[in-house]
Specification:
There is one protein chain. With 257 residues, the chain is an alpha/beta fold. The protein has one domain: TIM Barrel (Alpha-Beta Barrel). The strands form 2 sheets. The chain has a 6-stranded parallel β-sheet, sandwiched between helices. The chain has a 3-stranded parallel β-sheet with strand order 1-2-4, with helices on both faces. The structure holds fe (ii) ion (FE2).
Length: 257
């Protein structure tokens, strides 16, 4: 399996604090069946700016360490872009690390509380420039628990959606789990990633989530696609062919006179 969203670099964000924890995380990933990880530290806006060149350099150093310790895990540079003013412009200027060498895919953190005005337009600017935004863990935003229409619009625009494995398995609470599972059933989720931050509390695990996805999709091949072939194509910068999304039902509004 391929994990496209993982905070495994030591000392760069709220992920592992030292190299030893990064190595524990790598062993955990391998035991879970993960052979490839894209290191995606927080980047651009927010607390951890992490410029692209720094991420590339840190990934090279951790790769060397894996090699010297004979840890069979492939590691690639990426980032998780925090929303900020001029986000699209800064991404297109090369400030953040893409998920692929061809610079066609960028991981963008979905806001946790609200959806800022202008967010959709920033994503549209990226699409206009042949960059596909992959929206990370929208199921963790309570606004999305009640209304998934905005995600349908983003997917129709050409964005991809990534859900967190722990959301699917219930680790972030029932509302988040129900929402993540609903996104799968509406075909509004395209990849599953760990968003791991540590060796103990939030380790890199995908296998349990694949079992849940298999139950929802009634097809193990389709569930595996979300952690295998689709992430592989993204990593290679190839186009992906997502399933046709189902438009979520609009919430009924009641008026009292
Ligand atoms: Fe993350």
């Amino acid at each position: 399996m391929i994990d496209l969203h993982c905070h495994i670099l030591p000392g760069v964000d709220d992920g592992p604090s030292d190299i030893y924890e990064s190595i524990y995380m790598a062993h955990h990933a391998i035991e879970d069946g993960i052979h490839t990880i894209v290191a995606t530290p927080h980047a651009l806006g927010g607390t951890y700016p992490n410029p692209r060149q720094k991420i590339i350099k840190d990934v090279a150093a951790l790769r060397e360490r894996f090699l010297s310790e004979k840890i069979p895990l492939s590691l690639y540079p990426g980032s998780e872009v925090h929303i900020c003013p001029d986000m699209a412009k800064r991404i297109l200027a090369g400030e953040a690390a893409f998920l692929d060498e061809n610079e066609h895919y960028i991981l963008i953190e979905f806001p946790f509380q609200s959806i800022p005005p202008g967010f959709k337009n920033e994503l549209f600017q990226l699409k206009l420039n042949r960059v596909t935004p992959i929206i990370a863990h929208p199921e963790r935003n309570p606004m999305i628990h009640h209304e998934q229409g905005v995600l349908y619009d983003l997917v129709t625009m050409g964005c991809l959606i990534q859900v967190t494995s722990t959301s699917l398995t219930g680790g972030f609470g029932e509302d988040t789990m129900i929402c993540a599972q609903k996104l799968l059933s509406l075909r509004l989720a395209h990849t599953i990633a760990s968003d791991a931050h540590s060796a103990a509390q939030r380790p890199p695990s995908l296998s349990l989530a694949v079992e849940v996805a298999t139950d929802i999709l009634k097809d193990k091949g389709k569930a595996l696609e979300m952690v295998d072939n689709r992430p592989k194509d993204i990593l290679a910068g190839k186009p992906v062919d997502p399933p046709v999304a189902i438009r979520p039902e609009k919430k009924k509004r009641f008026f009292f006179f």
